[in-house]
Amino acid sequence: MNFYGVKAIYNFEMSRMRRTLMQSVLSPVISTCLYFVVFGSAIGSRMGDIDNIEYGAYIIPGLVMLSLLMQSISNASFGIYMPKFSGTIYEVLSAPVSYVEVVLGYVGAAATKSTILGLIILATAKLFVDYSVLHPFWMLSFLILTAVTFSLFGFIIGIWADGFEKLQIVPMMIVTPLTFLGGTFYSIDMLPEIWQAVSLFNPVVYLISGFRWAFYGVSDVHIGISVGMTLLFLTACMAGIWWIFRTGYRLRS
Amino acid sequence: MQPDISVKNLNKVYEGGFQALKNINLDINRGEIFALLGPNGAGKTTMISIICGITNMSSGEVKAGGYDIVKEYRKARESIGLVPQELSTDSFETVWNAVSFSRGLFGKAANPAHIEKVLKDLSLWDKRNNRIMTLSGGMKRRLMIAKALSHEPKILFLDEPTAGVDVELRRDMWEMVRKLRENEVTIILTTHYIEEAEEMADRIGVIRQGEIILVEEKSRLMSKLGKKELRLQLQNKLDKVPGELTLEPVELSEDGYELIYTFDSQQEQAGVARLLRTLGDIGVDYRDLRTRESSLEEIFVGLVHE
Fold first, then answer.
1. Is the Cβ–Cβ distance between B30 and B186 less than 8 Å?
2. Alpha-carbon span B41 to B49, nearest angstrom
3. Which residues, other chains included, contact B37 with Cβ-Cβ below 8 Å and sequence gap of 6+?
4. For the stretch B2-38, what's the b/e string if a residue is b when 16 or more beta carbons lie within 10 angstroms of its beta carbon?
5. Minimal CA–CA distance to A4: which of B97, B147, B145, B102?
6. Which H or E run includes B215?
7. Which residues of chain B have a Cβ shorter than 8 Å from any chain A Cβ?
8. Where in chain B is the domain with CATH 3.40.50.300?
C-alpha cells in the first residue's frame, strides 16, 4: 500500500477545496439556505404537515441530499478531470500507485468535502428551521455512504468527460431533476398511484427516503431497501471504476 | 551486468491500426546517458510513455531497475523519474507544494531537506512560495525536473528537456545531468538538439518510423559513420581538378582556390599523404590546410533520410 501516495492525492485535493472556499463551500451552503428560507420559513409555515412533521423540517433531508449528491459528483469529477485537462495526469499514471489507491485519494477527498458540506448545511438549517435527528448514527452513516457512492459516480463522470460541458450534463440534466422528483419536497405517497410506481425507478427516492428515516423515523420505502439500493449503486460504481482502470478507458491509450 | 532498462520485442499498435513501435529491443546500462534520437513521430515519446506506465504496450516485455513494468509496476516505477515534453503543471499550486506532492505520490516520506536541495540546485529556491502560474517558461521547465527528482529516482527520462529554453538554462541542465550521472543515475534523453546528445551522451540510439535502426557508443558512431574533410587553400587559382589527382575523391571549390578532399574517418590516412605528395609533385602550392569532422547532426540526418 502506497500510503504516502494516497495521502499526497488526498491532501492535494483538500488544499484545492481550501483555495476555492467560496465556490466549494459557501456557494452551496448559501443556495441551500435560500431553500430553507423560502420553502421552510416563508412558504412552509402555510403548508400542512407531512407524516406529522412540519413541512420546513420535512424537506431538510431532501435538500441536504440534493447538495450532497451535486457536490460529491462535482468534487470528484472535477478532481480527476482537471489533471486530464491540464496534462498533469501523467504523474499519477507513472507513479507507483494502484488504481485502488488513486480512487482512495480522489474519491476520499471528494467524499470528505461533501460530507463536511452536508454537516455545515445541517448546522445552518438550525438557524431557519427547528428539526431533530432520531437516529444520529444512521444519519451520519447514510451521509457518508451517499457521499462516497456519488463521489465514485463523479469520478467515473470525470474520466468519461472530454470537455467541461460533459462535466455539467449529468449533475444538471439528470441528478437535479431526479432529486426534485425523488421526494425532496413531498412524500411519494402524495402522488397518484401510477406516478408512485414510476418514482420507484428513481434511485434518489431511496436515498432521500432512507436519509429522512434517520431524521424522523418515517420513510417512503423500507429503510432496508434504501440501504440495499444505495449499496447496489455503490457496487455498480466500483465495478465501473474497476473496468475503467482495467481497460485504461480514457486514461491510458 | 544486468541492464537498468531492458526492452524486448516491444510493439505498440494504437487504436485505428497505427503501429508506433515495431519490435523494439534495447538495453540501457546503469549510470549511462543514453540519447534517443529520431524525427518527429518516430516513436520516442511512445516508448518512454510505455516504460513509465503512461501508455499500454501491445506486446513485449519491459523491465526497469530489474523489475517488470507490468507485473512489478510499483518497484519499477519507484525508480523512475520522468520529465515530459509538455509543460504540464498545476497553475494554482505553489512550487514547494507541487514538488512535495510528487515525492509523496512516488511513495516517499516527506523530506524537506531533499526538496530544498533540489530546488536550490535548479535555482528555484527563491520561487518556492510562488504559484506556478507566475513562473516563466524556463522556470516551469526547471520545476518539471524538480518534480521528477523529488523522489530520488535511479532512472531519469528527459523527453526533450531543453525545448524552448535559453542557452543558459540548457547549460545548467547539462551540468545537472552530469552530476546525476556521477551519482549513478541512468539518464535517457530524447532531444532535437543534436549538440545536446553530442555533448552529453555515452550511447546514441536512433529510432525511425517506430524501429530502432542503430544503437552505438557515441564515439564509435562518430568514427564509424562520420566523415572527415580536408580543405587546401591554394596559392593560385585552378580551373579544374588536376588529372593526377584521380586516385582520390577531390573537388574544386567554385572560386577555384580550394581543393576539398572528403574521406571516411575510419579509413586509413594514406590518402591524405598521397594527395599532398602528388600536389607537391605537380607543383600545386597551397598556403593553408584544415580538417573537419562531420557532426552528429550530419550523421543523424544521413541516417534518418536513408
1. yes
2. 14
3. B190, B191, B194, B197, B204, B205, B206, B207, B300
4. ebbbbbeebbbeeeeeeebbbebebebebbbbbbbbb
5. B102
6. strand B211-217
7. 14-15, 52-56, 73-78, 80, 82, 84, 86, 88-93, 97, 100-109, 147
8. 5-222
Torsion, Cα of A89, A95, A96, A98 (10° steps):
0
Residue A100 has pLDDT above 90, yes or no: yes
**A192 inside 8 A of chain B by CB:** no
The answer, for A23 touching chain B at a CB cutoff of 8 Å, is no
Which cell numbers in the block locate residue B159?
523527453
Q: What is the pLDDT of residues B109-135, one digit of tens each?
A: 999 999 999 999 888 999 999 999 999
Residue B188 exposed, middle or buried by CB count within 10 Å (0-12, 13-18, 19+): buried
Dig out the grid coordinates for B51 from the structure. 516504460
**CB < 8 Å to A101, chain B:** none
Cβ–Cβ gap A96/B102 under 8 Å: no
**Of B154, B189, B181, nearest to B66 (Cα)?**
B154
Cβ pair B22, B11 in contact under 8 A = yes
Kindly list the domain boundaries of chain A, sorted by start residue: 3-247
Which residues in A lie closer than 8 A to residue B89 (C-beta atoms)? 86, 88
On whether any CB of chain B is under 8 Å from the CB of A250, the answer is no
Neighbours of B238 (CB within 10 A): 15
* Residue B265 predicted with pLDDT over 70: no
Residue A16 to residue A11: CA distance in whole angstroms: 9
Q: Does the domain made of B5-222 have the CATH classification 3.40.640.10?
A: no
The C-alpha cell at B90 is 498545476
Query: A94: distance to nearest CA of chain B, Å?
Result: 5
Interface A–B counts its CB contacts (< 8 A) at 83
CB B260 within 8 A of CB B227: no
Residue of A19, A94, A251 to mutate when probing chain B, most B C-beta within 10 A: A94
Which CA distances in Å does B131 have to A15, B89, B127, B305? 14, 10, 8, 44
Task: Say how far apart CA B89 and CA A82 lie, in whole Å.
Answer: 11
**Residue reference for cell 511513495:** B107
Q: Which of A16, A91, A92, A100 to mutate to test the interface with B (most CBs of B within 10 A)?
A: A91
Looking at A24-126, which runs of residues are DSSP E strands? none
Residues from chain A that touch B14, judged by Cβ atoms under 8 A, are 253
Query: Is CATH 2.20.25 the classification given to domain B226-304?
Result: no
Chain B contact for A9 (CB, 8 A cutoff) = yes
Per residue in B85-109, pLDDT tens? 888 888 899 999 999 999 999 999 9
Q: What is the pTM of this model?
A: 0.84
